[in-house]
Amino acid sequence: MYRISKIILASTLSCLLLFSCEHKEPPKSQPVPVNVITVKTQPVVYFDRYTATTVALSQVNLLPQVQGYITGIWFKEGSHVKKGQKLYEIDRHIYEANYRAAEDNLKVAEGTLTQSQQDADRYSYLNSQKAVAKQLYDHAMITLENSKSTVKAADEVLKNAKTNLAFSVITAPFDGTIGFSMVKLGDLVTVGQTVLNTISTDDPMGVDIQINEKQLLHFEELQHGKGKGIDSLFTLILPNNSFYPADGEISIIDRAVSAQTGSIRVRIVFPNKESYLRVGMSCVLRVHNQDSTPQILIPNKAIVEQMGEYFVFEAKDTVIVSHGDTASKGHNEPQKTGMVALQRKVHVAATIGPNVVIKDGINVGDKIIVDGVQSLHDGSQVSIADKKPKEPGGKDTSTTKNSGQDKQ
Q: What residues are paired with 255 via a beta bridge?
């Protein structure tokens, strides 16, 4: 009986081991149903977009040229000031006193010069008549020259005192907007070190962008008037996504391309009579694209963004070669076995309504997946769904100024 139990137990363990080692094939994954479009080209109107920063055409820090205590502040912070307008006053008493003393010293020197000139004239006459010692004549001439030098020195001291007195009042160097004062009444300021304030021009206002060196020739053509006949060649989108009410024009292209980034700075100038633009604003500059060549346009929902790069999925037939009876058929026959999604990196040039312009990465005739991309990865099995997606194009691809929406 004991032996029979051992046999039964061994048989049971063997069966359990056999079933546990049996290989189970994983369930076959089903193709993901997707919709596709065939890539085509068509004429489109759009704007190239650039991240931009507003800059003043002229901007300076106001620094004192004389030392002293601030005794007057004559402007409203953040206001518009005119060239020559009085802004700050530094204690003038010591500089006024120095100026008056320099004036008096000059008068004394001029009086001494007059006396020396008279003596020199008298001794010159007597010397010509041999009626005076040669030594006295020489001394008179030397005294005259010394008096002339004293007058020149006194005149320079007076000019310096006058300049310092003028520097005790700081005025606006040009029309512009002044910022918050960095000093208050009673503060001691040091020559060339204490920043009093910053003033910058506000009309017109510059807008700086960085372009790739490949675009340099195009912008140079725009600078020389190629785009003058185009409406809204340069337009600006403000930080609140509203359109700036005036158009700009290209002003300056920097002298050199950055060796590190391969980019170059370009400045567009906009009128700013209402002072809507302030220095340092982050905006978007739109440049009307003049390329009349038909462009590849696909729905925006077909685009997948990964770490700043853009991809699409191309639906591709998978083909295998059948190794049949080569003696009877003479060749191998290709057979389609389904479709797979292949990931393609693309360069997105612009957004136009619900569509995007693609510069490279896909070609005309490719089948691009537009629905179901969230469930795909490179190499996923796909099948074409019954629903046909809407082809890009039509009125959605147009752009009009002041439409209320940025269709780029």
A: none
- 316: which DSSP letter? E
The three-state secondary structure class of 341 is: strand
Residue 193 lies in a domain: no
Compute φ and ψ for 367, nearest 5 degrees. -100, 115
- CA-to-CA separations, 183 to 171, 186, 198, 343, in angstroms, rounded: 15, 9, 12, 61
Residues 6+ apart with CB under 8 A from 134: 127
Q: Measured between alpha carbons, how far is residue 113 from residues 119, 142, 374 in Å?
A: 10, 12, 98
Residue that terminates a domain, selected from 120, 149, 166: 166
Query: Is 174 inside any structural domain?
Result: no
- Looking at residue 80, its pLDDT comes to 92
Whole-model pTM: value is 0.63
Per-residue model confidence (pLDDT) at position 397 = 37
| Whether residue 146 is found in the same domain as residue 162 | yes
- Tens-digit pLDDT profile for residues 119-170: 889 888 888 888 888 888 889 899 999 999 999 999 999 999 999 999 999 9
pLDDT under 50: residue ranges of the chain: 326-328, 330, 395-408
Q: Report if residue 20 sits inside a domain.
A: no
122: containing domain: 93-166
